[in-house]
């Protein structure tokens, strides 16, 4: 037996606690890489590079979102092929130059290039830590695991956003805030290389012990079928994908335009840093509870309520002015996002089979992180044409609409009885056995299991 294969191999949070805690710490460093930009970069665009048009100033988010989305899709397939750990290490190597590019950038194009690299870094590292935690914990504690994973990442976003705001207020917009990012990248690379262990064999073990229902032929699924299921055809998977996209669409608004709105309303950099940090802080802390609650209460109701709560918080920003009321809005947005973010990942883990779960996570995260790019374009164009507050109102409406879609289309995926099997590709028509039928979109009702 090689040293890379645990003996005995067991699934569960308690059984794999040291590696799970280590991966939580690594994902906190991943979140810190994003946090170094949240407060400072929109202000750099306005005050240093003189980008007057909102659309132009948000190009760094477009570059980040598109690159991260495409990398997410690749990360799942690459981690299935080469293992989780090599992909995690590669992501950190690509992230190392990002803070240096931001410190030395003589033009806005350097910032865009840095965010292309940051998108690859985030797509490889964040996706892989998610996949590794799902591998380790097994099906029973998946929501709790995703809650801790996302909490670590977004608490780090919040802490770094606040810290960079304070550093920028005392020492200027560059270079001090970005030295934090350089430290995070070095620590992440070191921990991932030396201490993180491969987890792909846990997924293989779970696949071997997985109990199929209704004629499980998951091995016949192609990458295209998995992408189509996750994106469009399977009701729970595709509902999660659109909700993830809209969730990051409104996060793009908060990242790119809220600091500018706060600055033009007379707030100083330190107070802007507090507001920018508060939203992901509530989001991060809340996920410690909501992921586990979804294991007890189910996924759907938390997702619907969370999307509507986010919409209310965004609308409050659009409708009001002042530090105190914006604190309330940030809390509402953070609480709503906490109810959604880890639970959507748990939905993917519930429905996708262990043998193609990594690729389903990659497809979901493709759509989710395209929300950054789509949100930046929608918000930037609307703000240029109609003003900042009109852009915020539009994003609030889209977020509410997404919650309504989940309420209508998604079914509950965390059930005690056998879950639906979207990987079953047998023909439903006995007169034509062997032909690949359309994969089912929703849980079968009243159909007897084949024997």
Automatic annotation (TrEMBL):
Transmembrane intervals: 20-36, 48-66, 87-111, 151-169, 176-196, 257-282, 302-319, 325-348, 369-386, 392-411
The entry's keywords: Cell membrane, Membrane, Transmembrane, Transmembrane helix, Transport
Membrane topology annotation: Multi-pass membrane protein
Subcellular location: Cell membrane
Ranges of biased composition (kind: Basic and acidic residues): 426-439
UniProt key word Ligase: no
Region of interest: Disordered: 421-451
InterPro entries per the UniProt record, alphabetical: MFS, MFS_dom, MFS_trans_sf, MFS_Transporters, Sugar_transporter_CS
Domain Major facilitator superfamily (MFS) profile intervals: 16-414
Any Pfam family matching the protein: MFS_1
Name of the protein this chain belongs to: MFS transporter
